[in-house]
Amino acid sequence: MGLPRLRRSEAREVTSMVISRWTKARSASALPPDSVALRVAQLESVRRTAVPLYLACAANVWVTAVLMQHRVPPVVLLAGLVPVTAAAVVVVALRLARRAPGVTEQAVTRGLTWNRQAVLWMAVWLVGWALALYRYADLAERVYVAHFATVSLVACLVCLTYSRRSMLLAVLAPGGVAVLVLAVSGEPLLLAVGLETAFLLAAALPVAGSRERNLRRLVLAQEREGRSQRQITDLALNDPLTRLPNRYTITQALDSALDRPDPRATVLFVDLDGFKTVNDTLGHQAGDVLLAEVARRLERTARRHRVSVGRLGGDEFAVLLPHDDRARGEALGSEIVATLSEPYDLDTARTARIGASVGAALAPAHGTDGEALLARADIALYAAKDAGKGTVRVFDQEMERRLTARIDLEAALRRALADEERVFVFYQPIVDATTGRVTAREALVRWHDADRGWVPPNQFVPVAEESGLIGDLGRLVLTRACQDATTWADGARVAVNISAEQLGRGTLVGEVREALAASGLPAGRLELEITETAMFTRAEASTQELAELTALGVRVALDDFGTGYSSLSHLIAFHIDKIKIDGSFVRESSESPASATVVRALISMAREMGLTTVAECVETEQELERLRNDGCTEIQGYLYGRPEPRPQDAQYVQALNTLRPRI
């Protein structure tokens, strides 16, 4: 079969596309005619070729003068010998003296202009001198003189390859005159020489043009290589998003500052508070905009104080101070916290607020090695966050001791979870406020370490969340709670706490399905307790997960209500069945009329919305009576029972209680 024929319109489109791509390819590989790099390369090429060509021309003139001395008057000979020889001497002298123009644009332009004018005059002079000799020569000598003029013109063209106009001028003016003289000589031999000269000069133009194109390609390749090298260097030394120096550059600068007989420096380790929430809720693009604005604010502050700033990675930055004045370092740290805590306009419709914490380390007091100083500033930063964020802390040895203890605690917890050894689930009853019947039991994790004894949950749960162990810990509690609930004769529900690190990651629904299927517990008997703060860590994904769990029949309780992002719309949007009134309101309601009013308002609101209410931390009959009168649905607290292990663990737990901690 033959190839299908294209319609005329299709052929035009194909042709247009080919021409467009060819034009783009040429423009991508083209240099602007006024490129400084190209002019420098052109001048360097002229400098390399000028000396041998001027010497060749001078030698050619001397040979011709010797050959023609018996026929030509001395004055005519000297008219060729003196200027050409002088020009060659000057060029050689300049080359030997290395008096090349500088690399400024003006100097390069002057050098190329001088060369163009000098070469054009040289071409005119040599051809003119050849025509002067031509008058005195016989036929054979005229042939030689013609070849002399041709060779001289070609030599001049080599020095003019960077200027197409000058090349054409040299070919058409002196070259054209020489060819014309030979053409009208009436001698067939001279006519042949004239034609040969014309062909040679015509061929010299594309050859010279090719040489110029090759030079352009070489310069373009060098410029591309230079740009690539600069980009590689830039990426190696600077952060691509914020354009600040990166960790490597900061560490090198710090090492240089410390590599002195008496090193004095301060490192401020800056970490953003709440950036992760912005990144998760508004998206990574908004997070990048926020980081860029943080960098600009830090740069402005650094310029005012004449200090250095860089990005270490993520939402961490470093500021280097050229002194070890603790008071000045803390003052700058506080200024940074205040500056970074101001609102950020991400775009025309969205504004974000974050905070910052700062850790400081001083040299030589806290170390004289860059990485060590950064590490200790990081330890101080951890202490600042532990103190409530939005503050500045300076490193001390006690911080390092606490951090080491935390690392050891994490390692011990990791081993305990891997072996499922001495990790228990205790249960605290939740009762009906009117009848006193147990309606649910809250599953509370407890851990006994062989060295530390019973570790309080408020110590190891945050460690699990920060280290990524919360997923394993949460699955263990969920699985055991569902299994244990199937053994309860009263059919009470089991309530399991869900961490912010578990919610909204796309794994919770599958884990709940698996735990229910493995235990056989009906979904209606499982309650998941979440905090308002946890829901808003990844709001959109959390809403989807809670909707799926509700569809399964699982109940959702809002824990510590009133202490987070409290909003009536949250109770509807997140499919909440129950609210748990934070124990702080319950305890203070006996002494504080304001707290008592808050508790009544929460209970009344929940009743109107058809939600169950649970009052936490109820310990006295007086508190119970007041909550009953207010209409609270369920009660949890020491009044009805402390957290207790399941029956099969009770004897083991009692034995552990008799052991003394080793550390």
TrEMBL record:
Listed PROSITE patterns: EAL, GGDEF
Record keyword Lipid metabolism present: no
Alphabetical list of Pfam families matching this protein: EAL (PF00563), GGDEF (PF00990)
InterPro entries in alphabetical order: Biofilm_reg_signaling, EAL_dom, EAL_sf, GGDEF_dom, Nucleotide_cyclase, Rev_trsase/Diguanyl_cyclase
Domain GGDEF: 263-397
Limits of the EAL domain: 406-657
Transmembrane intervals: 51-69, 75-97, 118-137, 143-160, 167-184
Cited SUPFAM superfamilies: EAL domain-like (SSF141868), Nucleotide cyclase (SSF55073)
Keyword field: Membrane, Transmembrane, Transmembrane helix
Name of this protein: GGDEF-domain containing protein
Organism: Xylanimonas oleitrophica
